[in-house]
Every structure is written in structure tokens, then in C-alpha cells.
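Researcher: Let's do a round of design. I'm pasting the C-alpha cells now; please hold your answer until I've finished.
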């Protein structure tokens, strides 16, 4: 089946009439209410695509056309095991076509009929979603046999007249769309989706009260790939790739992209792209819009300059905490804050934690200083130590208790790296408040004792509180 663009939430309408598009052959003896379908007239109305994409736009009306060689499996409620194949007779490249029974068969007998368009050239009630889909690389397939969403339909005879037999096809699968952009010209070898739910396999179409449904029951798999061969993409230009999948809810989804083996070197990238989404029958669901780096990103470790390769004034900080894959973590500023806060002393750059009265902010996270800092951003003038960190720019914040403790533990790995200055203050503020509502205490690092300590808000002037800001990073 050809499409100018794509099937999305489509309905196919088939009709048969005794005048010129279907024959009413004599029914078998003893089955005088039966009719026989030798030919079937099928019409395809305009369908509608809902994916917001540069290729077709949200809500763009599109036409669906039949293709030469299209086949439909038909059977009846009365003879459920007698499956007959109907092949396109006329109407290719148009929305209106006639199908005729293949071979010397006289057609399906019965009063209630089922039809399946599954891309198979042999009669079958089965739908199979292969683990490798090779059809049209960067737009939905023009033909169901090449991987577009299978469809099924039910029709019943009314008043013994074939003219009342009308098939309204419904989509049984959905389409996932992945848009990716490479940072440089590249040759792509394959794209693979991995999920906690079944993406591939086979199953029989079932009808309940005329409504078709499909569920994978055999050869189930949780990965689906599109083999691209040596598909060349231009850096900076988005490309959208499509996968036909069961219409259902999905949990975790990950995307693997591999370059072609030519040219070398081969690169491989993995991205988590979704954690909970639903794909509707006949719908197109964009599940990812990602940028792929053709050059392997630097794997950061403690003590690395950030960003990698920076020098002089381009050094933003030094990594003091890194994730296992080295693609995210936390950096510390190169030196203590010394301006843009209410300083206790201009000489040693120390700050009051809070400027007046009891703090009412809920700054109770011991591990997320960013959340604590965001909680007071709107009135940071009342929180001098926080203001000093925020003054460094986007992303900087006053570390929480555990973050500050980790930073001190890593000092030996940071000193003299990229201009990093040792933390020589007597005490360093954290952003964490602990204690009851009437006895809130500020958590700080006591450099003399080399341990975390607390002080009341009213007693903060007894602590020469320095500030060393930190920030988070993530390589996308």
C-alpha cells in the first residue's frame, strides 16, 4: 500500500456490491444464507498524520494509495479455518481498488467476514514484527509488506445482500519516530531500540465483537533494529527514522546508534530516551529528538579539568565527583568566592550565612545543594553565602552538607589541577539546615577539626565562613 506520507490513525473502507465489483455465487447446499465473496472493492479515504515534523507537519491531511501486489487474507466466522488470499486486481496507485480471490477458489463463504492486511503473500491470520526492519530508511514505508502498520477489518451481511458488506479497516500497530542529528557528516550503520516491553514477535489477530486486536505471543523480543547499511547524513541536519511496534504502553526505552563500518573508525552511542510512554494504534509517536556525537565524548574522572581540553580562563572548574560512565558529575570552582556577598572581612573573603532573623526556608537536603540554593534564589540578598555562589553565574550553587564533605575528601586529587586553589579557609558553609524548627543549625565544614560541624543561626558570626561554589555537569 502506497502512501504520499504515512498512515496515522487511519480507517480503510471496503465495500462489495453485486452489480459490478463482487459476485454473489450460489451458496453451498444447506447454507442458503451464505454469500460468497469472489471480488472485493476497497476504498481508502484520506488519513491524517499528527507528528509535528518538518516532513509533514501536525495534522497534515495525507492520501493513502493501494500498490500493485497488495494482498488481503479473508475468512469467515462460519469457516474460520478456510483462509483465502485476495490480490489487488485493479486500482494500483489510487485510493480505490478491487481485490480478487487468488487461484481457482470460488471465494470465502459465510455471513460474517474478517480481513487482514499484514503484508504477507500467503493467507495467514498472523502478524509478525521482525527484529530487523529494513524498509524505507527515513520515512514510513509505502507498503504494508515493507513494514508499515498492519490492519484488520470485520464485515457482516445484512438482509442477504452483498452490497451491505463493508470493511472498515483499523490499524493494529503504532509507529515510533526517532529524530537524530549528528554533530558532523557521518555514515550510519544501524539504529536499535531496546525496551522493557516486547517490541517484536508474532501473534494471531483476534476479533471481539468485530473489534480486531493483536498481541505478541511467540518469538517475543525487546529489541528492534533498523539496518541502514551506509546511510550518509550531514552534520547538523535532523533525520527521522521509523519503527513499527505494538500499540501499547512502554517503560524504559534506550537508543543505540552505530556508525557504518566504512569509513572507520566505527563508533557506537547509547542514549536513554524515554521512561514511560504509550503508542496508540495507527499513531505516530516521536520518542526521541537527540544529537549524536561522532567523536567519543571525554570520560571524566576526579581531578579532570572541565571542560576537557580547556586552558587558562576557559577552565570552568575541576571534577571532584564523576558518574561511573564519566558523562556526568560535579565540579568545584577554582577558588573561594571573594566578591558579591556581604563579607565579614574584605581581607579573607568570609560571609554571613544569613543576614537577619530566623531563616524560614526549607533547606534540609543534605545531598542536593542545587535544590537548596534554588529555594532562596528569589531573596538571595538575605543569604550572603548563597549570593556569593550564585554570583559566579548559571549553574553554580552552595554545596549541601554531603557535597561539601566529598569536596574536602577529594582535595588531594584537585590541587594544582588547572589552576585549582587549595581550600585554606578556617570554615566553609554548606547550604544545609538541620534541627527542629526552633533550633535550626547551619552545617559547615570545620577545617581545623577536619570534620563537619553545626552552628546556630544566631551564632553564625562566630564562624569565619568561606564559600567554595560547585556546579553539576552532564554530557549529552
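Researcher: That's everything. Go ahead.
Model: Designed sequence:
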Amino acid at each position: 500500500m502506497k502512501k504520499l506520507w504515512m498512515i496515522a490513525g487511519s480507517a480503510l473502507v471496503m465495500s462489495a456490491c453485486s452489480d459490478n465489483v463482487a459476485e454473489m455465487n450460489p451458496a453451498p447446499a444447506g447454507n442458503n444464507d451464505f454469500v460468497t465473496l469472489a471480488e472485493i472493492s476497497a476504498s481508502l479515504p484520506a488519513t491524517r498524520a499528527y507528528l509535528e515534523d518538518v516532513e509533514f507537519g501536525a495534522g497534515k491531511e495525507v492520501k493513502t494509495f493501494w500498490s500493485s501486489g497488495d494482498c488481503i487474507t479473508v475468512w469467515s466466522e462460519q469457516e474460520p479455518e478456510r483462509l483465502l488470499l485476495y490480490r489487488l486486481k485493479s486500482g494500483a496507485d489510487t485510493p480505490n481498488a478491487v481485490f480478487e480471490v487468488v487461484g481457482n477458489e470460488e471465494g470465502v463463504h459465510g455471513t460474517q467476514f474478517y480481513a487482514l492486511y499484514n503484508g504477507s503473500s500467503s493467507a495467514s491470520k498472523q502478524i509478525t514484527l521482525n527484529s530487523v526492519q529494513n524498509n524505507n530508511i527515513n520515512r514510513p514505508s509505502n507498503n504494508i509488506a515493507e513494514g508499515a502498520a498492519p490492519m484488520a477489518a470485520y464485515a457482516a451481511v445484512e438482509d442477504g445482500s452483498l452490497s451491505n458488506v463493508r470493511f472498515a479497516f483499523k490499524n493494529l500497530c503504532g509507529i515510533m519516530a526517532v529524530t537524530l542529528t549528528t554533530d558532523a557528516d557521518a555514515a550510519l550503520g544501524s539504529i536499535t531500540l531496546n525496551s522493557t516491553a516486547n517490541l517484536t514477535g508474532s501473534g494471531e489477530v483476534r476479533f471481539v465483537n468485530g473489534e480486531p486486536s493483536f498481541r505478541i505471543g511467540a518469538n517475543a523480543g525487546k529489541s528492534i533494529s533498523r539496518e541502514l547499511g551506509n546511510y550518509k547524513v550531514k552534520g547538523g541536519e535532523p533525520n527521522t527514522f521509523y519503527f513499527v511496534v505494538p500499540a501499547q504502553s512502554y517503560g524504559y526505552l534506550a537508543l543505540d546508534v552505530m556508525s557504518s563500518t566504512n569509513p572507520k573508525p566505527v563508533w557506537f552511542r547509547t542514549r536513554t530516551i524515554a521512561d514511560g510512554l504509550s503508542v496508540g494504534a495507527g499513531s505516530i509517536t516521536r520518542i526521541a529528538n537527540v544529537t549524536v556525537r561522532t567523536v567519543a565524548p571525554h570520560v571524566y574522572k576526579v581531578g579532570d579539568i572541565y571542560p576537557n581540553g580547556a586552558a587558562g580562563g576557559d577552565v570552568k572548574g575541576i571534577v571532584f565527583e564523576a558518574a561511573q560512565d564519566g558523562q556526568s558529575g560535579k565540579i568545584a570552582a577554582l577558588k573561594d568566592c571573594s566578591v558579591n556577598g556581604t563579607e565579614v572581612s574584605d581581607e579573607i573573603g568570609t560571609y554571613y550565612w544569613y543576614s537577619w532573623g530566623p531563616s524560614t526556608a526549607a533547606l534540609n537536603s543534605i545531598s542536593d545543594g542545587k535544590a537548596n540554593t534554588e529555594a532562596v534564589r528569589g531573596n538571595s540578598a538575605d543569604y550572603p553565602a548563597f549570593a556569593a555562589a550564585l554570583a559566579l553565574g548559571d549553574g553554580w550553587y552552595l554545596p549541601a552538607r554531603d557535597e561539601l564533605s566529598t569536596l574536602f575528601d577529594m582535595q588531594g586529587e584537585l590541587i594544582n589541577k588547572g589552576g585549582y586553589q587549595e581550600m585554606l579557609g578556617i570554615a566553609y558553609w554548606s547550604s544545609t539546615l538541620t534541627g527542629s524548627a526552633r533550633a535550626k543549625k547551619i552545617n559547615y565544614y570545620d577545617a581545623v577539626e577536619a570534620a563537619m560541624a553545626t552552628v546556630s543561626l544566631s551564632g553564625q558570626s562566630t564562624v569565619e565562613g568561606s564559600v567554595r561554589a560547585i556546579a553539576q555537569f552532564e554530557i549529552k
